[in-house]
């Protein structure tokens, strides 16, 4: 067992796969959509994580008009918001959110506000007061816009922020924003984050006298 210490001024948190395990819902909804489009559901699930729905659809159906992707995405968001069966917190998420309460942090998610509220509520996790949701950005992850907006709203330089992410698109977005990345869960392990944890039980938060943050990452 070893430990890595990462200093930061602010934390930017993805939701799905990072704070909340929503894989069961995501799989149900996207398998249903893929079958209706004549796409192999297993192939669809390889690219769905981290992106907004319309962006996933554009990857899977590159010749389809974006207007149709936006329309399907609205239906998908409504289905996902109504379906919280199996939505649970990632291990250690409640304790982690309690530890950073009062420290600079923001939720940066590809979900819209209603879906974020539904999933954080279903997982019984505190919703950060600063949040960047799908309505707040013009481009989906892996574009860095969401993370850059989160840093700007908190008032910190990107280099002073640490991103928590689980997906390829999300980790790429954090890197493109010039931020360090803690990868959470099995999807993140092979993607080269600055540190990797199985779940948030491996993260201890220390507040320094100057108001900065030290993350103690325990690797097994």
Short summary of the structure?
This protein is of the alpha/beta class and 220 residues long.
Question: What characteristics describe this protein?
Answer:
220 residues; six-stranded parallel β-sheet; three-stranded antiparallel β-sheet; 8 helices
Describe this structure in words.
The protein is of the alpha/beta class. 37% of the residues lie in helices and 21% in strands. The chain has helices at residues 23-37, 41-45, 53-60, 66-82, 93-99, 113-122, 145-154, 168-176; strands spanning 2-8, 10-13, 20-21, 88-89, 105-108, 131-132, 161-165, 180-184, 195-197, 203-207, 213-219. A six-stranded parallel β-sheet has the order 6-5-2-7-8-9, covered by helices on one side. Strands 1-11-10 form a three-stranded antiparallel β-sheet, with no helix packed on it. It has a two-stranded antiparallel sheet with strand order 3-4. The longest helix is centred in the middle third of the chain and has 17 residues, at 66-82. The mean pLDDT is 95.
Structural class: alpha/beta
Q: Can you give the mean pLDDT?
A: 95
Unreliable sequence segments? none
Indicate the overall shape: globular
Strand segment count: 11
Q: What is the overall number of helices?
A: 8
Percent strand equals: 15-25%
Helix fraction by DSSP (H/I, runs of at least 4): 25-40%
Give the radius of gyration: 17 Å
Q: Specify the biggest β-sheet.
A: 6 strands, parallel
Order of helices and strands: EEEHHHHEHEHEHEHEEEE
Strand order of the largest sheet: 6-5-2-7-8-9
Q: What's the structural blueprint in terms of helices and strands?
A:
Blueprint (H helix, E strand, L loop, with lengths): L1 E7 L1 E4 L6 E2 L1 H15 L3 H5 L7 H8 L5 H17 L5 E2 L3 H7 L5 E4 L4 H10 L8 E2 L12 H10 L6 E5 L2 H9 L3 E5 L10 E3 L5 E5 L5 E7 L1
Parallel strand pairs: 2-5, 2-7, 5-6, 7-8, 8-9
Antiparallel strand pairs: 1-11, 3-4, 10-11
């Amino acid at each position: 067992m070893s430990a890595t210490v990462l200093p930061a001024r602010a934390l930017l948190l993805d939701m799905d796969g990072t704070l909340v395990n929503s894989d069961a819902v995501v799989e149900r909804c996207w398998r249903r959509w893929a079958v209706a489009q004549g796409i192999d559901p297993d192939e669809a699930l390889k690219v769905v994580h981290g992106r907004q729905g319309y962006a996933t659809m554009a990857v899977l159906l590159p010749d389809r008009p974006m207007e149709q992707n936006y329309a399907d995405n609205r239906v998908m968001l409504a289905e996902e918001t109504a379906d919280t069966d199996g939505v649970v917190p990632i291990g250690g998420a409640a304790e982690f959110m309690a530890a950073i309460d009062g420290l600079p942090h923001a939720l940066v998610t590809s979900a819209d506000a209603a879906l974020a509220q539904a999933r954080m509520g279903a997982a019984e996790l505190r919703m950060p007061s600063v949040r960047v949701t799908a309505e707040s950005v013009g481009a989906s992850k892996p574009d860095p816009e969401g993370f850059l907006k989160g840093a700007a709203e908190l008032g910190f330089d990107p280099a002073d922020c640490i991103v928590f992410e689980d997906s390829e698109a999300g980790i790429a977005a954090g890197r493109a924003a010039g931020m360090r990345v803690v990868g959470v869960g099995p999807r993140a392990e092979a993607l080269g984050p600055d540190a990797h944890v199985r779940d948030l039980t491996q993260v201890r938060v220390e507040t320094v006298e100057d108001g900065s943050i030290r993350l103690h990452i325990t690797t097994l």
